[in-house]
Write a structure and sequence with these properties.
Radius of gyration: 25 Å
Number of domains: 3
CATH topology of the largest domain: Aspartate Aminotransferase, domain 2
Low-confidence stretches: 73-93
Mean pLDDT: 89
Number of strands: 15
Strand content: 15-25%
CATH superfamily of the largest domain: Type I PLP-dependent aspartate aminotransferase-like (Major domain)
CATH class of the largest domain: Alpha Beta
Shape: globular
Largest sheet: 7 strands, mixed
Distance between the termini: 40 Å
């Protein structure tokens, strides 16, 4: 029996909702497998492989595999002071108004070409209490740019205990090598003093003293490290890679600092202690889009901004727009406008009430995590439901997929990372997974 034509089969599965060229790919795959009737299943699999929404029920607030910090601000045509939209960034076209451009690189005052770095610089510098700021693609790019612009062919002193490897196998020594700077190791794995940095400066051509916050691990026991204030007295500029991106240890947008943030350095305090520059991620504790942020002395930031690598590392308008919305929310001290903080500050009793109201599974107290290499070992009290057995795969088949975690054959659905508006969706996904 001859198989159907690829085009006819693709037309038959048009209700899947994919563009015709993708339906053709699914139809060809089904015919090649000898099972034309599976074309719709192939199309659904293809659709689910595309970027789309998912419900994070893992309890990991900054889940790297799920996009880290969820974005809650959309570009708004309203005046800046009226931007309070909490709708998630979507993929659907916006038909509510006219198509408009942005003043990304246009100076409205002079009518001439402007700088894309100027918009975020003022906001981020204000938030961190410093002179200037610069935004690049991610934190690794920020560190690379700083080293290339300020220390090429010169030494950079780093504690042996801070030669970390971040996700994806990227290591500080390798990043430094690509930047053209020369690594000068000081101290030991567990103990490094200011005197170790001072000795390196006296013996070598040291351009920078680099501190790398070990955000994804902890060394305990017989340990010692030099603080920024002591390093700032030695001479070369101190660059502190904070990684996680807590803007201010006081958390003024919350009114008080949560216990689970104990020990996490803030960008504002690190700069006040004497760091010439700090670098950190935009999509971790800041709760914004993926970005790398450089804050500090204006002359050093300007040197980074004028370096040729900046052209390769510069972010696009969508990132800068989202970052501006987040920065404005911080300046308004509106934590509810930033989904990460909105989720993080929900009282456990409120989560427990939601778990009871779901009417499925067994309500349970759980522990959430910041995630994305932030605050290792720090647990955040939480609540959700538990299901006997491993139902993770079944929950992922729901539309939208619900991503849970499994502990010793118990499926845990942690509500700290679930928007209350999705509680009914989670309940329906659980019922389907349990065959109810």
């Amino acid at each position: 029996m001859r198989p159907p034509s690829v085009n006819d089969l693709a037309l038959r599965i048009a209700d899947v909702g994919l563009p015709h060229p993708l339906l053709v790919i699914a139809a060809r795959a089904a015919i090649a497998a000898g099972d034309p009737d599976s074309a719709a299943d192939e199309a659904h699999r293809l659709r689910r492989s595309l970027l789309g929404p998912a419900i994070n029920a893992t309890g990991v607030l900054l889940h790297t595999n799920l996009g880290r910090a969820p974005l809650g601000q959309q570009h708004s045509r309203a005046p800046l002071g009226q931007q309070h939209s909490r709708a998630p960034l979507g993929l659907e076209p916006d038909d509510d108004g006219p198509v408009r451009f942005s003043n990304l690189e246009f100076d409205l005052a002079s009518g001439r070409r402007g700088s894309r770095t100027s918009h975020a610089s003022l906001l981020l510098a204000t938030l961190t209490g410093t002179e200037a700021a610069l935004v690049v693609n991610n934190c690794a790019a920020a560190v690379t740019l700083v080293l290339a612009a300020l220390a090429r062919d010169r030494g950079v002193a780093v504690s042996r205990g801070e030669l970390v490897e971040i996700g994806g196998g990227f290591r500080v020594p390798e990043v430094m090598e690509q930047s053209g700077a020369r690594l000068v190791e000081v101290g030991t794995t567990n103990r490094t003093r200011a005197a170790d940095y001072r000795a390196a400066v006296e013996q070598d051509d040291i351009a920078l003293l680099l501190k790398v916050h070990p955000s994804n691990y902890r060394i305990t026991g017989f340990t010692e490290e030099a603080d920024v204030a002591d390093l700032a007295k030695i001479g070369p500029p101190v660059v502190s890679d904070l990684g996680s991106g807590l803007l201010d240890e006081r958390c003024p947008w919350l009114g008080t600092r949560p216990d689970w943030l104990a020990g996490e350095p803030g960008a504002r305090q690190t700069l006040a202690a004497g760091a010439a520059l700090v670098t950190f991620s935009g999509d971790k504790l800041m709760g914004g889009p993926q970005a790398g942020i450089i804050c500090g002395n204006a002359d050093l930031v300007a040197a980074c901004a004028s370096h040729p690598l900046m052209r390769a590392f510069r972010p696009g308008s969508l990132v800068l727009d989202a970052l501006q919305s987040v920065a404005l929310a911080y300046l308004r001290r509106d934590a509810d406008a930033i989904p990460f903080w909105r989720m993080a500050k929900v009282p456990v009793d409120e989560l427990a009430q939601r778990a009871e109201a779901l009417g499925v599974g067994q309500p349970a107290r759980t522990t959430a995590l910041a995630g994305a290499g932030s605050l290792p070992g720090q647990e955040i009290p939480s609540a959700g439901i538990e299901l006997d057995g491993d139902h993770a795969a079944a929950l992922r088949t729901f539309d939208p997929p619900v991503i849970a975690r499994v502990n010793e054959q118990t499926t845990v659905i942690d509500l700290r990372t679930v928007d209350p508006a999705d509680d009914t969706v989670v309940a329906a996904a659980v019922r389907q997974a349990l065959g109810q």
